[in-house]
Specification:
Radius of gyration: 21 Å
Distance between the termini: 33 Å
Bound molecules: zinc ion
Length: 436
């Protein structure tokens, strides 16, 4: 279940754009007419019909993005993000739907907490938002939540993100409950006794800097366990923010054996390596950490061949005073909603590492499939979920340029290529930099 604030469906005519929907096989310079929030006609020189005209000349019109992994920080840390600010940031980033994680204060582990969030989203969400509920009470890893009740209250799936579910027996029972709830588990895979005291990837750079290391196997050993349990129970699962080469290899092998496993990767893991930590900038501190060149290459390969089907930002806002501390003391996590497309376009598409079509598919249809959401499509009869991209635009990431309440971006001060100019979510314009 996705919810959003009230907004009228629009009548629009987008003219002159290169319309590009890789999943639908569309790549043509055509007009798109939207009647009452639904794509009604594709073609050349369409009749205006009294609709508002959006001039897309020089721009790419693509299916809008979906983010299966966002931290909205509510309830509890409204100073860092709210449903209103987080969904506004998502709209500016080209997103038409996002999924929020339950590691809040209190944790989303009861129908009452979830119900209150859904009510808030109905008032203030700029774009449709879905909520995951916790797998264990308080995310303490000891006792399962009332999963059937939470599913009835609208939980899109279940996750203890931020923490792993350490006990294998509990994980097994959580998977079994999926047969009752029909919802998927989304897993943060980390073996905590291998990652205690870690600040970055364990390797040559951590040895040089003298930081505690988080070895790749600290992730992959849990990925392998969870895939084994999912195979045994014949239940689907989703692997959050993969970072390690061995995790990718385990996922690929499990999928080949028929395990119903999906996975996501973040823009920062696709664009950076642990070399970035030499800056000692706390905005490159995340969990899982940035890894080696070889692991980055393995993630890119897995995104290319579809083993990893989704890009997710793991947008994790933090207050400035919490990040403006020495690297070892800083919390894990970076923001990402407003820079994801431009970061990937600049670091992967422009240098010829991945085609634009692959990035667009993994940010949209591929990401939507994670939790079985409707795939944004540019086709007659589809709800209008569209993004207008200016691939020639160059812009600088500035602290005062965010709609998010937090500015802990790994791209601060960088110059990026590719800019979101407008976003239409669920039939309504939710962001626009275009002249009326
Ligand atoms: Zn996580
Ligand atoms: Zn997360």
């Amino acid at each position: 279940m996705l919810v959003r604030g009230d907004a009228p469906a629009e009548n629009l005519l987008v003219t002159g754009a290169r319309v590009l929907d890789p999943a639908a096989g569309v790549d043509a310079r055509i007009d798109v007419r939207i009647d009452d929030g639904v794509i009604a006609q594709l073609g050349t020189s369409l009749d205006r019909n009294g609709h508002r005209v959006v001039d897309g000349t020089g721009l790419v019109l693509a299916p809008a993005f979906v983010d299966p992994h966002v931290h909205l920080r509510v309830p509890g840390r409204e100073d860092e993000e709210t449903i209103a600010s987080g969904t506004a940031a998502a709209a500016a980033g080209g997103y038409c739907a996002i999924v929020a994680m339950p590691n809040t204060d209190p944790v989303v582990d009861s129908a009452a907490v979830l119900g209150a969030l859904v009510e808030d989203a109905r008032r203030e969400a700029a774009i449709p938002v879905g909520f995951l509920a916790a797998i264990t009470k308080g995310q303490a890893g000891a006792e399962l939540t009332e999963m059937a009740e939470l599913a009835d209250a609208g939980a899109l799936g279940f996750s203890d993100d931020g923490r792993p579910v350490v006990a294998s027996g509990l994980m097994r029972r959580a998977l079994q409950y999926g047969a009752v709830t029909g919802r998927k588990l989304a897993l943060h895979c980390e073996e905590p006794t291998l990652t205690r005291g870690a600040h970055m990837h364990e390797g040559a750079v951590s040895a040089e800097l003298g930081f505690g290391g988080y070895p790749s196997v600290g992730e992959s050993v849990m990925v392998e366990r969870d895939l084994a349990l999912a195979a045994y129970e014949e239940r689907p699962l989703h692997l959050l923010h993969l970072s390690a080469r061995e995790s990718v290899a385990a996922l690929r092998a499990a999928r080949e054996r028929g395990v119903d496993a999906t996975a996501e990767v973040t823009p920062h893991h696709l664009c950076l390596t642990d070399e970035a930590v030499r800056s000692l900038d706390s905005n490159v501190k995340m969990n899982p950490p940035l890894r080696s060149r070889e692991e980055r290459a393995a993630l890119i390969d897995a995104l290319r061949d579809g083993t990893i089907g989704a890009v997710a930002t793991d947008h994790a806002p933090h207050a400035r005073h919490e990040k403006e501390v020495p690297f070892e003391e800083a919390p894990f996590g970076v923001t990402g909603l407003e820079t994801a497309f431009a970061a990937l376009y600049t670091h992967l598409v422009e240098p010829g590492v991945l085609p634009l079509e692959t990035i667009l598919e993994r940010m949209s249809a591929g990401a939507a499939r994670t939790f079985g959401l409707d795939e944004p499509r540019i086709a007659v009869g589809s709800r209008a979920n569209l993004v207008l991209l200016d691939l020639d635009a160059t812009w600088r990431v500035r602290e005062d340029g965010f709609r998010s309440r937090s500015t802990n971006s790994w791209l601060l001060g960088d110059t990026l290529r590719g800019k979101v100019r407008a976003t239409i979510a669920d039939g309504t314009t939710v962001f626009s930099e275009l002249r009326a």
